[in-house]
Amino acid sequence: MITSLAIQVGVVAAIGALLAALIELADRFIANYGECRITINDEEERSLNVQGGGHLLGALAENKLFIPSACGGRGSCGLCKVKVLEGGGPLLPTEAPYLSATERKNNVRLSCQVKVRNNLRIEIPQELFAIKRYAGRAGKIIDQTHDMKQLDIELTEPETLDFKAGQYVQLTAPEYAKSDQPIYRAYSICSDPTDESTISLLIRRVPDGICTTWVFDYLKVGDQVELNGPHGEFCLQPTAREILFIAGGSGLAPIRSMLFQMRNEKIDRKATFYFGAQTSDDLCYLEQMAQFERDLPQFKFVPALSMPRDEDRWEGAQGLITDVLDAGEHEFAQAEAYLCGSPGMIDACIKVLLTHGMPQERIFYDKFA
Amino acid sequence: MEPGPIAIFFAAIFTSNILLVNFLGMCSFLSISRELKASVGLGLAVTFVLTTTSLIAYLLNQYVLVPLEMEHLRYIVFIVVIAAFVQLVEIVIERISPVLYVNLGIFLPLITVNCAILGSLLFLVIREYDLWQSLAFGAGSGLGWMLAIVALAGIRQRMKYSKVPAALEGPGIALIITGLMSLAFVGFSGMIPIQ
Ligand SMILES: Cc1cc2nc3c(=O)[nH]c(=O)nc-3n(C[C@H](O)[C@H](O)[C@H](O)COP(=O)(O)OP(=O)(O)OC[C@H]3O[C@@H](n4cnc5c(N)ncnc54)[C@H](O)[C@@H]3O)c2cc1C
Ligand code: FES
Fold first, then answer.
1. In whole angstroms, what is the distance from residue A317 CA to residue A357 CA?
2. Is residue B195's pLDDT more than 70?
3. Would you place residue B27 in the very low, low, confident or very high pLDDT band (cuts 50, 70, 90)?
4. How far apart are CA B55 and CA B132, in angstroms?
5. What are phi and psi of B155, to 5 degrees?
């Protein structure tokens, strides 16, 4: 009985082992893509030798070249575009929805979907070479509202980060109790761009969110933090037009940084900042905005509450930010708008701006999604 | 008289089509048949897996399972064999056609649980086929399945231009077409009976 059982188990195991060996061989010989060379921007010194078989996005990241990505390579954000001039193979059905006809003609691909199987020739915008990985220490962590914290990060390695106001970084949340792998999330920088050694982020808690729960419940002053950046092109345009800033919640972050820039560079343009919140508990940086109003003669801060309570004794603007914006008196057709916050708020505000005659190409935004 | 390998081969394609007569392998049949190219790819993959696993299953059954009186472990052994060959096909397809690989997506690994394959392997054991008969049956079943899925994909591509009642769009109308195709194949029955 026992021997026959042992034989049966042995036979099944032997068959399994034999087949596993066969697959291992196939993996060695068929799935072996060898070492591949990635030529970047036709510059020899930028070329990389990588082990084939992986995705382009990962191969580049391993060599400290960070292509923006919000979905972590799942092919759902469409941010990781690069030009693949040679060796990328045919366009995959997973990429098609994210590429316009012009992009397809120009060989733009999603780097998280393209696999490195042979030598590649690719083109990457120059500014992406500036994106680096940074290590730092959590400095002050300040409660700004009941669900928003300002996190100061003192950079240690490298010690300075050169960014433009409006750009964001990707913060890495390490493996911790609620998450079994490191993940990264985008956060706009809210600090003064001339301060390169400490960057501040304004982070709003998302219930059960992986990164925000880590920041709110686990991260302590002095802890090691890691990030990469700077990313993004949501920056002040060098024109003389009137500016409309519109933000909700933590969307205030990049705009605060832009206001620092305006003050540093003495940019004296007419500017209005519409900040949407529900109650007065959601308002923050009021003191600082008042200071900006004093320092920038043509700047005006307009906080608007959509659900003021009696105890708020609110005398400022009331209603949804779209309504307040709608009632504002601006030369919309001549102005420029910078929006930041949730996708719903941004889309609704864009509609209002368009109906007032603002051309689409003068509306700039960063959607927090 | 026992039908020879050639008769079994054609019978498996037409008169006893694994899909249209035995109704095995329906799920990937319905989901991948929207596009001709992907159907041909999946059909080829299924045919390859069925042919190779039929051979292996026959050999294992004849020379290992029966002599050791382990026939009751047939399911485990066959499924392991199928899984291994599907993995091989995956490695090969990814190498030679990344587009097909992405198009087939989850359905490539799902060939592992395609009941047409396990069903065929069990048929050839139950019907006590010899080596050549098994090989012919495996290859024929695979080609029969491919014929069915490619035919359906062809019809469905044309259906894009027809007005289908809203409630029947998608899988609904595909099932009705499958029924009609199945009726047509019943017309072949009796020509070469295999059982
Ligand atoms: C360019 C850019 C800049 C950004 N800048 C900032 C910033 O300055 N400050 C800031 O706080 N955030 C910012 N975000 C959003 C941030 O990157 C994260 O998406 C957010 O903090 C949630 O991360 P998480 O890991 O905590 O939640 P996740 O684990 O990613 O999400 C958990 C769950 O919550 C849902 N969810 C995610 N976000 C929200 C939300 N806002 N409201 C409700 N449900 C949500 C998800 O769908 C998911 O089901 C920015 C995003 C982008 C793309
Ligand atoms: S990283 Fe999101 S689509 Fe590639």
1. 23
2. no
3. confident
4. 9
5. -65, -45
**Interface pTM, i.e. ipTM:** 0.80
Residue A340 has pLDDT above 60, yes or no: yes
User: What backbone torsions phi and psi does residue B29 show, to the nearest 5 degrees?
Assistant: -55, -45
CB contact under 8 Å between B64 and A19, yes or no, is: no
- Which of A355, A243, A224 is CA-nearest to residue A299? A243
CB-count exposure of residue A183 (10 Å: 0-12, 13-18, 19+): middle
Residue type, B62: Q
CB < 8 Å to A9, chain B: none
Residues 74-133 of A with CB under 8 A from B: 89-94, 113, 115, 117
**A172, β-bridge pairs:** A184, A226
The pTM of this model reads 0.63
Instruction: Measure B32 CA to nearest chain A CA, in Å.
Output: 14
* pLDDT tens figures, B108-141: 888 888 899 999 999 999 999 999 999 999 999 9
Query: pLDDT per residue over A65-118, tens digit each?
Result: 888 887 778 888 888 999 999 988 888 888 999 999 999 999 999 999 999 988
Residues A151, A219: contact at Cβ < 8 Å?
A: yes
Q: Shortest Cα distance from B70 to chain A (angstroms)?
A: 7
User: Which distant-in-sequence residues (6+ apart) come within 8 Å of A184 by Cβ?
Assistant: A72, A170, A171, A172, A173, A211, A227, A228
Strands (E), A218-279: 224-231, 243-248, 271-277
Over range A201-212, report the average pLDDT.
94
How far apart (Å, rounded) are the C-alpha atoms in residues B121 and A353?
A: 66
pLDDT above 90 as % of chain A:
74
Is B73–A12 a contact, with Cβ atoms under 8 angstroms apart? yes
Q: Is A210 in the pocket of ligand 1 (CB under 6 A)?
A: yes
Q: Which atom in ligand 1 lies closest to the alpha carbon of residue A204?
A: 11
Q: How many CA atoms lie within 13 A of A71 on its CB side?
A: 13
pLDDT digits (tens, 9 = 90+) for A241-259: 999 999 999 999 999 999 9
Phi then psi dihedrals of residue A32, to 5 deg? -90, 115
Beta carbon of A257 within 6 Å of any ligand 1 atom: no
Is the four-CA dihedral A248, A304, A208, A342 of positive or negative sign?
negative
